[in-house]
Design a protein that fits this description.
The chain is mainly α and 129 residues long. It is built from four helices and two strands, in the order αββααα.
């Protein structure tokens, strides 16, 4: 999506902290995005300006808060969430079908050779393999 991202993560360890996984994903993206903006579109940085209570100014790439996390326990829940995510650009009127959105895993799961995102097999997630 132009202004947000959905990610389904399958932790490979039995014990994990989702906040650490989320941080490991968000920090490098934020650093690269801000570096890009500083070089390529410095005027856009003003939109990201965030005044801290201590008076410091930061440039916030991500919204405040931790996101909207939930654990997926059932295969049907996973399929429902994937369908929701895949159809988000369609609902927004950005494309006519989910596989038209270049950055969607829908392209991978539909077998598109040019899928920009390569996913783990859904069989691994639902334990059918």
């Amino acid at each position: 999506m132009p202004e947000h991202v959905h990610v389904i993560v399958w932790p490979r360890q039995p014990v994990y902290e989702i906040r650490l996984i989320r941080t490991a994903l968000k920090i490098p993206v934020q650093r690269k995005a801000l570096a890009y903006l500083r070089c390529q579109a410095p005027e856009f940085l003003e939109r990201l300006r965030d005044f801290q209570p201590n008076g410091e100014v930061h440039y916030r790439f991500w919204q405040r808060g931790g996101g909207y996390d939930r654990n997926i326990q059932e295969p049907n829940t996973l399929y429902t969430m994937m369908d929701y995510i895949h159809n988000n650009p369609v609902r927004r009127g950005l494309v006519s079908q989910a596989t038209d959105w270049a950055w969607s895993s829908a392209r991978f799961y539909a077998g598109a050779e040019d899928a920009a995102l390569k996913m783990d097999s859904i069989v691994d997630f639902v334990g059918l393999g």
